[in-house]
Amino acid sequence: MVTQHFVGDKPVEAFPPEAMRKIPDEVLTRRELNRLSKGADKEPGANKRAGVASRDPAEFDTKRHGG
Fold it and tell me: pLDDT tens digit string along 13-25?
């Protein structure tokens, strides 16, 4: 099976290191509060979910842990 990685809409051979770093939850919460304080009509919590989605999926694989 061939796997293709994308950054935005551009295919890449490997992800850049800055795309793989973990954004601390405190920073995500601060960004979320800032976004919502500006009257953003997007769903609350979207910023944190996007930050978690950018992390290594293997860390969040519940099937492996019996959940």
Answer: 888 787 777 888 8
17/48 Cα distance (integer angstroms): 20
- Of the candidates 61, 58, 54, 56, which has an alpha carbon nearest to the alpha carbon of residue 28? 54
The CA distance from 55 to 22, in Å, is: 6
Q: How many CA atoms lie within 13 A of 4 on its CB side?
A: 5
- Residues with Cβ within 8 Å of residue 35, at least 6 apart in sequence: 42, 47
| Residues 31, 8: Cα–Cα separation, whole Å | 21
CA atoms within 13 A on the CB side of 66: 0
pTM over 0.85: no
Tokens of 16: 């850049």
